Amino acid sequence: MSSHHDLVIVGSGSGNSILGPEWDGRSVAIVEGGTFGGTCLNVGCIPTKMFVYPAGLAAVPAEAARLGVDLTRDAVHWQRIRDRIFGRVDAISANGRAYRDVEQKNVTLYGEHARMTGPRELVTDSGRTVTADAVVIAAGSRPRELPVPGAALPQVHSSDTIMRIPHPPRRLVIVGGGYVAAEFAAIFHQIGVAVTQVVRGTTLLRDLDETIADRFTRAARDQWDVRLGTEITAIAPIDEEHPGTGPVRVSLMDAEDRDAGHVDADLVLIAVGRIPNTDRLGAGAVGLDLHHDGRLRVDQFQRVLAAGRPAPGVWALGDICSEYQLKHVANHEARVVAHNLTTTGSLLASDHRFVPSAVFTHPQLAQVGMTEAQARSHCAAVGQDLAVAVQDYGSTAYGWAMEDRTGIVKLLAERGTGRILGAHLLGHEASMLIQPLVQAMHTGLPAHRMARGQYWIHPALTEVVENALLNLHTGA
Ligand SMILES: Cc1cc2nc3c(=O)[nH]c(=O)nc-3n(C[C@H](O)[C@H](O)[C@H](O)COP(=O)(O)OP(=O)(O)OC[C@H]3O[C@@H](n4cnc5c(N)ncnc54)[C@H](O)[C@@H]3O)c2cc1C
Ligand SMILES: NC(=O)c1ccc[n+]([C@@H]2O[C@H](COP(=O)([O-])OP(=O)(O)OC[C@H]3O[C@@H](n4cnc5c(N)ncnc54)[C@H](O)[C@@H]3O)[C@@H](O)[C@H]2O)c1
C-alpha cells in the first residue's frame, strides 16, 4: 500500500490550521495517531482553562469574606464540570475530524501513528507508505515520564489523563514546578483537594523573572503544601493486595539525597515537562537535525535542517521544533509555514522577539521579554542603565477596591531610550493587563510615551500599568 500527495501534514494540532482555500483541489494527507485536534484542544490549554474558571468561582466565597460579603460554597460538582468541558471539546474534535475526513474530498486522513522512512516518506502503523512533495511536521510533544518505581500505577496521572478522572481525589501529590504543575495545583486546591506539590528546585516557575517566581512561590505556599528542594523516589500502593486501587505512598528525598519522609495521596500527577515527539517519529534516523533536547532544528522560515541545510520540502512548526511550547507560538509558526508553502514571492520568517505567556493560577502570572537578570546583562552589553519599576496593584484605586495584597507589575526598560525590555505581572487578570505592553514592545513604543501618549481609564486596574511605566522614570 502506498500513496503520494502534494502535501502531508503529520499532526492535527496547529498543523491542521495551515490548509486554506489554496489547497482546494490539491491532494493533501493528514496523519494523526492520537485524538484529532492535538494537545491544546483535547488535553491542554482549552480544557485546563475550562477548569480554571469554575475552580476560581469555587474560591470566591473565601475572597469575598475579606471584603465583608459572606457567601457559602455548597458543592463543587466535578462530574458536571468535567462533562461540560469534554462535551464541548470532544464534539469540536469529532467535527474537525469529520470535516477533513469526510467533507473535504481532496484531504485524506490517516488516523494512525507514522514513522519517517525518509525526509518526505512515512510508513504508518498499518504498513502504508505515504510520500509527498512537501511534508509539514507538526507532531508536537508529550508528557515526560518520571523513571521512579510505581510510576505506572493507575493512580499516577499525567496532564493527558487527570482531567477525565471520575471523582476528584481527596489528596493529590503533584510532581514538578512548571506551568502544568502550577495550574493543576491551583485548580485542585480551589475545588477543595489537599494538594502537596513536590519540586526539585528552590522556587516554583524558576524560569520566570526572579521577583515573580519568589512571590508566586510564597503565594502558593500560603495556599497548599509546597515541598521545595525535594524529589520523589517511589510511589507504592498502601494496600498491597489491591495495588491498582486505593491510596498510594509517595516517598521523598531532599536535595542531599537524604530521606525526606513520605506523603500519602489518592492520586499523583506527574508534570515534569514535555518532550518532542521526534523520537517516535524517527526524525533523527532519516537525517533531520535535532537539538540536544530532541527538537527538530529549523531555520527562521520553519524549514527543517538536515546537516545544517534546509531539507527540500520539509517544514516544521509548534512543539516539535519550537523553543516555546505555547499554542500561540505554534499558531504563528503555522501561519508562516502556510505562507511559505505556497508563496511564489519571498519567504516569511517567524517572529519570536516578544513571545508572551501566562500561567492561569491564582494569582495569575503573565510575562513578556527579558527577566531582570537578562535585562541586566543586556544593559551592560549595550552600555545603558537599567530602569526597574515594581508597582503594587494595591497602590491603585481599583486595587484598594479589591483589597489586593499580592498583585504586582514589574517593568524593565533601558533608562536612556525608554525601550521596554520586559514586563512581568502577578495578580488578577495579569494575562489581559499585559497585552498593551506586548503591543508597545512590538511597535517600539517607549515607556514614557506609552504612559503619557494616551488616556488611561480611571479608576480601572490598568492604572497599575500606567503607574509602573511612570515609575520607570525613563523620560522617553
Ligand atoms: C496541560 C497543558 C496546558 C497548556 N496550556 C497552554 C496555555 O494555556 N496556553 C498556551 O499557549 N499553551 C498551552 N499549552 C501548550 C500547547 O498546548 C502546545 O504548545 C500546543 O498545543 C502545541 O501544538 P502542536 O501543534 O505543536 O502539537 P500538538 O497539538 O500536540 O499536535 C501534535 C499531534 O501530532 C500527533 N502525532 C505525534 N506524533 C505522531 C506520529 N508519529 N504520527 C502521527 N501523529 C502523530 C499527536 O497525536 C498530536 O495530535 C498547554 C499544554 C498542556 C499539556
Ligand atoms: N498557561 C500556559 O501557557 C501553559 C500551561 C501549561 C503548559 N504550558 C506549556 O507546556 C510546557 C510543559 O509544561 P510543564 O509544566 O510540563 O513543563 P515545564 O518545563 O514548565 O516545567 C517542568 C518542571 O518539571 C521539573 N522537572 C523536570 N524533570 C524533573 C525530574 N526528573 N524530577 C523532578 N522534577 C523535574 C522542572 O524542574 C520544572 O519545574 C510548558 O513549558 C509551557 O510552555 C503552557
From TrEMBL:
Any one biological process term the GO annotation gives: 2-oxoglutarate metabolic process
PROSITE patterns given in the database record: PYRIDINE_REDOX_1
Chain sites annotated for binding NAD(+): 176-183, 273
Cofactor dependency: FAD
Ranges for domain Pyridine nucleotide-disulphide oxidoreductase dimerisation: 355-468
Active site positions: 458 (proton acceptor)
Cysteines joined through disulfide linkages: 40-45
InterPro entries recorded: Class-I_Pyr_Nuc-Dis_Oxidored, FAD/NAD-bd_sf, FAD/NAD-binding_dom, FAD/NAD-linked_Rdtase_dimer_sf, Pyr_nuc-diS_OxRdtase, Pyr_nucl-diS_OxRdtase_dimer, Pyr_OxRdtase_I_AS
Domain FAD/NAD(P)-binding: 6-334
GO molecular function terms listed in the Swiss-Prot or TrEMBL record: dihydrolipoyl dehydrogenase (NADH) activity; flavin adenine dinucleotide binding
Keyword Oxidoreductase: yes
Positions annotated to bind FAD: 49, 319
Bound cofactor: record note: Binds 1 FAD per subunit.
Tree of life domain: Bacteria
Keywords: Disulfide bond, FAD, Flavoprotein, NAD, Nucleotide-binding, Oxidoreductase, Redox-active center
Keyword Chloroplast tagged: no
Family recorded in the similarity comment: Belongs to the class-I pyridine nucleotide-disulfide oxidoreductase family.
Protein name in the entry: Mycothione reductase
Protein species of origin: Tersicoccus phoenicis
